[in-house]
What does this fold into?
Amino acid sequence: MKKTRRLEVRSVIRREGQAVASSSGIIIGRVQKLLHGRQPIPARGIVSELVEHEVTRLLDAIEAAKTDVDIERDHLSQVGARDSLMMLDVHRMLIIDPELLNKAVGRIHDDCINAEWALRQEMDAIQTILEQVEDEYLRNRKHDIEHAGRRILGHLIAQAGSADAHEAWSVDYSGDAGEQVIYVGDDFSVTDIVSMWRHGVAGVITEQGGADAHNIIVARGVGLPTLVGATGILSHIEDGDTIILDAEQGTWILNPPSNEQLAYVKFIDAIAASKKSLQAFACKPSLSADGHELKLMANIEFPEELDVAESIGIDGVGLYRSEFLFINETKMPDEESQYKQYAALVKRMAGKPVTMRLLDVGGDRPWLYRDLAGHHYGGANPAMGLRGIRLLLRNKELMKVQISAMLRASEHGAVQILVPMVTAREEMEQVREAVEECRKRLGIRQSVPIGAMIEVPSAALMAEEMASVSDFFSIGTNDLMQYTVAIDRNDEELASLYRAGESAVLQLIVMAASAARRAAIPISVCGELAAKPAWTSTFLNLNMAHLSMSLNNILPVRQFLSRENYKPTSL
Ligand code: PEP
Ligand code: MG
It folds into this structure.
């Protein structure tokens, strides 16, 4: 019994809008609307023998959601965030509310349905009642019901062994067979994007989000056509509407007339033809017109990306965002399981360099790891709070587990360790000490290069000092931009001003490049600017050791590079 949504007959009006594009792909598909990051809930009828099983699943999920809140509460009380504590208390009360539980259990029994669907229906029923209440305060409690309920739903969907865990994002729009489905919502997390991609969703549009938001970076990496910052789109669409998602030009067209659809089909064919011509650059060295090499490496988030990497030919992994590997875990994985994943990646790269970044979570990237003290606490301003290496240095033992796994993996190839969000020299010194300690404990003889990400302006301004404690630099232009121009990288409102900051960032990049040259250490770029053809010759002439980017950008940049000449910048 799968929930279906039918196309309603209503007048259709053509509309269009602009958004930030993931940079590749055009899809003509049908809309499925998902409000408030709401996952489609797997709705199943069950046989009566499974009723008790579903009730147990619900009880387990409630227990797990309560534990989450308790852990978050602990972290928050350490930092004295009083408003957030009060909100958590309300959520906790609702999670353990016996009435919600009893009514959901009643639905499982009476209607013979799965726990997710019973809970969702009960949440909707309570919210409908609250919407009709006159008192504004009470009316607003419907949001608390939604948040608390979603915590339980999240655990239900993720429960191991539940077939629904694999179905959670599977497409449930009942359009004609073969139609592509495009999910449209207010915002989707990185985890949502990955799950949608894994479940064959054709494209994604969100109202919120800016050019360098993490979710769009991931969408770019896996090649899922995505638009973010499509302000206002949700008020115009209905499930089943036809929409053109143009992630090449950053536009969407709702209810396009058939002649426009036909024109787009031709455009899609033309793009496919030009992509085919890019294949001439697959597995070729990355050379300028006059034969100067600028290595092109990949930013990797998921092992699935390596198949594509092999087909286009890459010079190595310039940024391995280790946090994405364990995206669905609630605890930091132990050394052995981390080692296995890292070693598999290193072996697959067969001697080509792999730059592994230490866990970069916290702030606007809150992770699920319960054992990582402080990760739910963003700070007064999460982007400027406890994230990246700041968070790891508060969790030194967990950091050493990751370092040890990376060091062991280094025995299979050319690994280097990259430190995220470095602000001051002392942070690099502390990481170096930890690496040395782990290396000695493990009896690993060879040393592994340890590099600093240059993504906080202070690191660029103090690049000379930073170079004295770093074996290499890697410029993270996404964060460097946001901290230089004081604009959140997720903020769609200020996207144009954000881009205007590129010339200011160039000055910081030049500072870092000249400090690297004086210290004779390699410097490279791994933020999104690395993939912009307008920057290719600048980076070539600044003698970057390599550029690292999402896989789907490698061939276009390789083609672009082949038309440029090398004119070294004097630093
Ligand atoms: C960056 O900040 O430029 C970067 C590469 O890291 P991330 O996008 O993962 O923050
Ligand atoms: Mg960064």
In short: The chain has a mean pLDDT of 87.
